[in-house]
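Human: Can I borrow your eye for a moment on a structure tokenisation matter? Separate attempts, laid side by side, tell us more than any discussion would. Could you pick a protein and write out its sequence and tokenised fold? No explanation is needed for now; the record alone will do.

Assistant:
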Amino acid sequence: MARRRVSQPTVRWLGGLLAGVTMVAALSGLVALLEPLAPPLHFQVLYVLPIVAVAIRWGTGLAAVTAAVGAVVYAYLFLPPLYSFQVSDPWTAVALGVFLVTAIVVGQLAARLRRSALESARLSEEQSALRRVATLVARSVPPTTVFEAVIQEIGLLCGADLARMERYEGDGAVTGLAVWSRVPVQLAVGTRFELEGLSVARDVRQAGGPVRVESFTGAVGAIALEARELGIRSSVGCPIVVAGRLWGVIAASRKSDEPFPVKTESQIASFTELVATAIANAESRAQLAASRTRVVAAADEARRRLERDLHDGAQQRLVSLAFELRGAKDVVPAELPALRADLGKVADELSEVMEELRELSRGIHPAALSHGGLGPALRAVARRSAVPVELRVNTESRYSQPVEVAAYYVISEALTNTSKHAGASRAEVAVEERGSTLRVFVSDDGAGGADPGRGSGLIGLRDRVEAIGGSIEVTSPRGDGTLIQVSLPIQRRDGAEWTGEATAPPQAAR
């Protein structure tokens, strides 16, 4: 024969009753010891103590039962006639009745005070949890960090055994993003589940709002099967709505028979709003970064196309024209020296124009960077600089085109600013690979005071660097030179193929 399961509320009520009776018995023994010192009626007020204790811990109902038990025991043991449930003196009966009513009222006040204190503590804990998550959102940490923090806070705040966050996919499935458990269990993260059978995710999607699942017994589907394997008895879930669309769901689960409090949905909803904000911010940042990357890529492509057009078009025509002029000069008769001189002068001027055009094309997009990598391109920049440059390129790798172009233009623009504005006598440039980043350092001993926010070329450099996920820091105290530090995420390349191998020749230069 199967044993009958006793519900948890019944166990709690019986425990409270036993505690109240025990405290009344102990107090009666104490009154019996003190009886020689004063009349028993003087000790009647002491019976309020177990009533208050029971009211605080178990509520008003058990406090009233404890008050009745205390009054009966007191009358039986200490009021005449002794060891009788009859009270002979009417005034004593009135006093006993007043005590009983007073004790119940005091118990109610104590229970109400206890509830207020618990509610205040709960609200304080909830606000603290919300502040912690809001701080993460305000700091623009990665969404995964926010997800993990939210799931943990919800699990602890709601008294859940397990909590999880899932994202709805376009094909009708859900993917687990973050999980938390009070006890060590294996929970699926990154696993896709089809919304077949009973589940919080399915019901939230259908209802568009908070839902509860009281039992997974006999339910079908992968999620219901996992819930039974984990011992989950009930769950509550709330939707995550981002920009008006249903994005995901947060669910909290318990293994015990005790249901979640009625305010659980509102507690979870407070966190889903923060999650939605974090997701919307992340999507906006991603869209902005993608847009910035497209703008930079388009500008670089335009530079390369213009450089090719200049090299293959105007420069080649000027070279041919200069060659023809020098040939024409050589066939001019000796008796026309003035004409020979004029043709030579025109040819020399054409050579100067070609050199200027060559320098212009290098500024648009350096061919040396595409063909030889950072080392040769930066050596050419250092040679052209009006300020002496100490160059150290401590890497032998080739990197992705956006990384190499960003590093090149940071250095080129920084040296240009040093020559024009810093009044420096020397500059230093260092390029090195650290872990998964390419680090670039440009410093000078000039006047300092460079401000990236005042419309200088550093604003464009910051856009270029941040467009590929890098960072740039400018330190320029007045009178103490300028230091530019750049960190770029590494992508190596091998010819036209992207790999992790370094194939270019050594580029270390000084």
Remarks:
- The chain has a mean pLDDT of 78.
- The longest strand covers residues 245-254.
- Residues 264-330 form the longest helix (67 residues).
